[in-house]
Amino acid sequence: MRQVVRELLDILQLEPLEQNLFRGQTRATGQRSIFGGLVAGQALMAASRTVPADRPVHSLHAYFLRPGDFSLPIIYEVDRIRDGASFTTRRVNAIQHGKAVFSLAASFAVEEEGVEHQSAMPDVPMPTDLENDENIRRQVAANIPEPFRSAFLQERSVEFRPVKPLNPFDVTPQSPERMFWFRIPEPLDVDQATQRVLLTFCSDFSLMGTAMLPHGMNFFQPQLQAASIDHAMWFHKPVRTDQWLLYYTDSPCAAGARGINRGLIYAEDGTLVASVAQEGLMRLRPGEMQA
Predict the structure, then answer these.
(1) Does residue 209 fall inside a structural domain?
(2) Cα-flanking dihedrals φ and ψ of residue 202, to 5°?
(3) Inter-axis angle of helices 3-12 and 192-203, nearest 10
(4) What is the CATH number for 140?
(5) What is the DSSP string of 143-157?
(6) Rounded Cα distance, 108 and 92, in Å
(7) What angle do CA 231, 36, 43 make, to 5 degrees?
(8) Phi, psi at residue 172, to the nearest 5°?
(9) Which phi and psi (to 5°) does residue 121 adopt?
(10) Please, what's the b/e burial string for 38-53 (b: 16 or more CB within 10 A of its CB; e: otherwise)?
(11) In 10 A of CB 72, how many CB atoms?
(12) Range(s) of the domain holding residue 219
């Protein structure tokens, strides 16, 4: 197994400290704070550790409260709000420096049969016909400021293949929509709870930038203050993150220096496995708005 994948699996596993109390390790990724998908994944893992395996998570709703400090571990405190006949509810606070940096509520449910419908998967090329994101990043690496270049080029634990590659430095306004395939590039022998934790981790990649596309904004602009505000997911079907998944994202609105981003995640056979929504801060200093 590739070292980066092993490190991802290890960091998502938590150290139990006491009943309902866990500790998770962090890591620097070239960002100013902890990657949101990591703290969300670890928080869901903490909640899942207190729920029977026959009740998979079906939804989560979370808020990013403070920038995380990647030089310190995170303490996860689980509140067992409810254990019902069909549904189980948990609340998790992620704590650093004595303060909550992230708060998550998750609902777990007994699996049952019922009526079904779903949105059709977009008609896009298969991942085998598309270029790896790693090659695309190398082509624009010369434009990355030196302090961030090594992090930008480092090997990733998730493989991406964009349907329509985007130049992160292109300030031409574009439609707020993007699609890309992704997967963990190693076979994984893990349970469904861990698969859904991994999907939560992956769901935060490239989501917030969708709302920036119509405005010619990008994360490398020094005048831009960008941060995820909240994150919500709904899990519809069992998922395998070591198999190709299509992430379709769009942004219906930006207002008040915030942008809404939505996502649909499909398995390669067209099954809709999860839906995502996130609001993000995208604040430019006065006089810096480009379009």
Answers:
(1) yes
(2) -70, -30
(3) 100
(4) 2.40.160.210
(5) GS-HHHHHHHHS--S
(6) 14
(7) 75
(8) -70, 125
(9) -70, 140
(10) bbbbbbbbbbbbbbee
(11) 12
(12) 3-110+124-284
User: CB of 68 within 8 A of CB of 39?
Assistant: yes
Number of domains composing the chain = 1
Around Cβ 139, how many Cβ atoms within 10 Å? 11
For residue 162, list its beta bridge partners.
180
- Angle made by CA atoms 159, 118, 239, in degrees to the nearest 5: 35
**How big is the chain by its Cα radius of gyration, in Å?**
19
In a domain, 64, yes or no: yes
Residues 255 and 249: beta-carbon distance below 8 Å: no
Amino acid 118 reads Q
CA 235 – CA 9 distance, rounded (Å): 20
Enumerate the active-site residues.
Answer: 204, 228, 278
Q: Cβ of 264: how many Cβ atoms within 10 Å? A: 20
The answer to whether residue 224 is domain-embedded is yes
Per-residue pLDDT tens digits of the chain, which is 291 residues long:
899 999 999 999 999 999 999 999 998 766 677 999 999 999 999 999 999 999 999 999 999 999 889 889 999 999 999 999 999 999 999 999 999 999 999 999 999 999 999 999 999 999 999 998 887 777 666 666 666 666 666 778 999 999 998 877 778 899 999 999 999 999 999 999 999 999 999 999 989 999 999 998 888 788 889 999 999 999 999 999 999 999 999 999 999 999 999 999 999 999 999 999 999 999 987 754 443
Show Cβ contacts of residue 161 under 8 Å, excluding neighbours closer than 6 positions: 127, 130, 131, 132, 133, 180, 181, 182
Q: In the chain, how many H helices and how many E strands?
A: 5, 13
Tokens for 182, please give them: 């992704």
In a domain, 118, yes or no: no
Q: How far apart are alpha carbons 243 and 181 in whole angstroms? A: 10
